[in-house]
Amino acid sequence: MNEPMISLHNVEKSYPQGGGRVFVLRQIALDIQPREFITIMGPSGAGKSTLLAILGMLDGDWTGEYRLLTEDVHKLKPKDRVALHKQYVGFVFQQYHLLDDLTVAENLDIPLSYRDIKKSERQAVVADTLDRFGMVAKKDLYPRQLSGGQQQLVAVARSVIHKPRLLLADEPTGNLHSEQGREIMELFKQLNTAGTTIVQVTHSETNATYGNRIVQLKDGWIVK
């Protein structure tokens, strides 16, 4: 058996309320192998997005142990977690999170600009990505000039342009009509086949079929 890419042990998240604590996640234990495509499902309020935010190191306020590749995330300082996120993780949100005052090409350049890559090389990678995603004609447009499906396509392209080892997606097709949603999921399948480990949160049974394993959450617990 391979070493897991991700290993969570007794991960919990809670916040104070009244004289006690309200738990969002309880005793989460989860191993994810390299190249897996995991789907996290469960009712609203189950803790799905919180778990994804912890995996992506966007939320540091939790207890327990989290190992990503060779790094003990629970022992890292916040700035080191940010660096680890930028190195290994791509994140796709339901709400696109594109920067309105930047063009499509400029939005794609942002993750590359965090790295020590020369501008000419970055431009070549952006050009390749625009071509791969069929967006060359849209490179100088701003997000507001694109449809919802096109904006999400740009968001996915931006999340994978730096070739992350781990792609996290939170309801990535939630705002799209079914054909646009299918395109995004087919794209995820291709990325996974090419070696990207993917964890998606979805309510969609259809989207879940693209993955190879479903993790069910209920009231903050993993249920079988």
What does this structure look like?
There is one protein chain. With 224 residues, the protein is of the alpha/beta class. The chain has one domain (6-100, 148-223): Rossmann fold (3-Layer(aba) Sandwich), CATH 3.40.50. It contains seven helices and ten strands. It has helices at residues 48-55, 78-88, 104-113, 119-132, 148-160, 178-193, 205-208; strands at residues 6-17, 20-32, 37-41, 63-68, 71-72, 89-92, 166-170, 197-201, 213-218, 221-223. It has a six-stranded mixed beta sheet, sandwiched between helices. Strands 2-1-4-5 form a four-stranded antiparallel beta sheet. Strand 7, helix 6 and strand 8 (197-201) form a beta-alpha-beta unit. Helix 3 packs parallel to helix 5 (148-160). The longest helix is centred in the C-terminal third of the chain and has 16 residues, at 178-193. The protein is globular. The two termini are 22 Å apart. The mean pLDDT is 92.
What's the SSE blueprint?
Blueprint: E1 6-17, E2 20-32, E3 37-41, H1 48-55, E4 63-68, E5 71-72, H2 78-88, E6 89-92, H3 104-113, H4 119-132, H5 148-160, E7 166-170, H6 178-193, E8 197-201, H7 205-208, E9 213-218, E10 221-223
Parallel strand pairs: 3-8, 3-9, 6-7, 7-8
Antiparallel strand pairs: 1-2, 1-4, 4-5, 9-10
Helix pairs in contact: 3-4, 3-5
